Amino acid sequence: MIILGIETSCDETAAAVVVDGTQILSSVVSSQIDVHHSYGGVVPELASRKHMEAIVPVVNEALGASGIDSKQLDAIAVTQGPGLVGALLVGFCFAKSFAFALDIPWVGVNHLEGHINSVFLEEDPPPFPFVALLASGGHTSIYHVTSHTGCELIGQTRDDAAGEAFDKVAKMLGLGYPGGGVIDRLAREGVPGNIVFPRPFLDKSTFDFSFSGLKTAVRRYIQKQMDTYQQEIPDIVAEFQEAVVDVLSYKVVHAAVVKGCEHIALVGGVAANNRLRERVKQEAGLKGLTVHIPSIELCGDNAAMIAAAGYHYLITGTVSGLCDDVYSRVRY
Ligand code: KG4
Ligand code: ZN
Description:
The protein has helices at residues 33-36, 44-66, 85-102, 111-117, 162-172, 180-187, 212-224, 233-259, 274-286, 296-299, 304-314, and strands spanning 2-7, 12-19, 23-31, 75-81, 106-110, 130-135, 140-147, 150-156, 263-267, 290-292. It is α/β, with parallel strands linked by helices. A hairpin with a 4-residue loop joins strand 6 and strand 7 (140-147). Bound molecules: 5'-O-[(R)-(carboxyoxy)(hydroxy)phosphoryl]adenosine and zinc ion (ZN).
């Protein structure tokens, strides 16, 4: 089954052509970072307008690179939510119209299920059941995953998402938006522990997270060291990153042990973080668990993961209708 995937939930316009939910023929991601950079975050209306400009060229590029003619497509899968409504509507309405014009089925996909399915686009995917840590700009959750479209939420952030904390700390330090990549790079020049920030473990017996206290601790430190903190930025970000990584890696490994799962998947934009990738592998290894992490390009938002998740809906006959609408918030 050849599926065109489309993703416009936030600040990336993406399209991909994927065969049978596993083989990527093409994947194009057009980022709007330049548009939102100076605002220190995504401006929803600008995001929608940029998706409007980009959607047709991005889909054309993905089709061209795949060597597939639109008439050969079997179906379209598109992100339905959660995300920015105006941004989602661009991809959703485009997918609806294109599928109608081509007279093929189409299906709306939960963005978070898309991230979880990103591991199936790599070699050696995890067998079910497994535990997945989804850490992105909007979500930080742990799921017990039992099938491609079935998962149980077992823990989530009670305030900021991990990626959001990276972005906010980067903004405080004047490092621009988004903050994850730049903190990842700068942290290598610093030493965690030279400055000490708290590890927000909450109750160690739950799988919930909280990152706003850590963010506030960084803000307080900057305010206290107003005249000198600029020289300490590598140490500040190294310690901040280590605190986030300590909590994420502890909780996901603990969740796998409690759920009796031998496999862990790490997905979402924050899964691109080098220290997190390293630490989860290390700690899971100590317990004899195997970790599956997509390549960096498949961690961030992309349309191949949407096509991968959509495939599993389509093969079981789940399709969307012309009256279906997008949703901004997650249903689970
Ligand atoms: O999954 P994603 O592309 O979009 C959402 O669905 O939110 O995730 C974006 C988030 C941003 O907060 C960004 O700062 C973070 O992922 N991120 C990283 C890294 N690369 C991206 N966080 C930590 N380290 C990275 N290397
Ligand atoms: Zn995402």
